[in-house]
Amino acid sequence: MGKTNKPRCGSMAYYPRKRAMSQIPKFRSIVLPKDLKDVKILNFYGYKVGMLHVMGQNKHKGSPFNNQKVSIPATVVEVPGITVLGMRFYNVTNATKSALKDFVFTSKVSKHMSKRLTGVNRAKEKGDLMKTALDFFEENKIKVKEIALIAQTHPEKTTIGKKCPEVIELYLSGKPEEQLEFAKSKIGQDLNITDFALENTFVDLKGVTVGKGFQGVIKRFGVKRLHHKSEKGVRGVGSIGPWTPPTVMNTVPRPGQMGYHSRVQVNQKILKYIDECDKINPKSGWEGYGVIRNKAVIVAGSIPGHVKRLVAFRFAERIPKDIKTDISEITNIVLAN
């Protein structure tokens, strides 16, 4: 057997490796499901709880464990309801998407939103605000190509120790007229995860990974060089580039930020919704999280990000025909402790 050579293992797919601009993950693109007819929300948010194992019958045809009982890792995400506060009108031209105007109904805002929006508790909703929004839509009907919902999360309903909510956007399917009617009916109401997707649906999840600070090339890129060479250091590369021409290519491993990156995990399957929290709550609670109080969802595989961190859902862009971790149904849930 030949000797393996692995000078570095860092991927150039996400470069430069810089910190996420916001801890609230946001998708740049949303794909509509093919069998979607009515107006529906196309993304959702929840808080990462931790990981466990689920057991079920393997459905992967090419697997030697086909039709056998297997155990796969899964992640639990707590998904409290999201309250709709208003709507935002968008204009889409070619590949450019620009916001035209926002309408936020302040009487529907909770008391904790005063930390996000200045003067929310003192503001009063005008009786003709909805009429103003409808008039704006009629006047700019040619420009308005898309309407999104402005909503807020409810971390105070969880045990993560946070009260200040996140302000998010929920995208809708359908035509602008249909989106407007849907937004009018949902102002001030709570949306649940079941309004987004059902069980056994493939989704993409986005989160901000665990931050590790400023790291060297050995830890950041896995450079296999830990021996002395002349007067150079030990934990570094042999050469960063030639003297002539004096340049350093972007493919050369260099020290820098490691972790706290915005990453997307594709083709994760929603295995099960949990309404009764006692079924998945350990006696001592989840490590680093606490106790689940709201509805939760079990997703196959792992999710980027630390516990208590916000996770974004969307419908999968590239649905696979068959995956190795696909199981028919959950027969048993194995908790960590």
Describe the structure.
With 337 residues, the chain is mainly β. It folds into 2 domains: 15-79 and 196-222 and 256-337, Translation factors (Elongation Factor Tu (Ef-tu), domain 3); 81-191, Ribosomal Protein L3, Chain: B, domain 2 (2-Layer Sandwich), CATH 3.30.1430.10. The chain is built from 3 helices and 14 strands. It has helices at residues 129-139, 176-186, 217-221, and strands at residues 43-58, 69-78, 82-93, 96-104, 146-152, 167-170, 190-191, 202-208, 214-215, 256-257, 262-274, 296-300, 310-315, 327-334. The strands form 3 sheets. It has a 6-stranded antiparallel β-barrel with strand order 1-2-12-11-8-13.
Entry keywords:
337 residues; mainly beta; Elongation Factor Tu (Ef-tu), domain 3; Ribosomal Protein L3, Chain: B, domain 2; 6-stranded antiparallel beta barrel; 3 helices; 8% helix
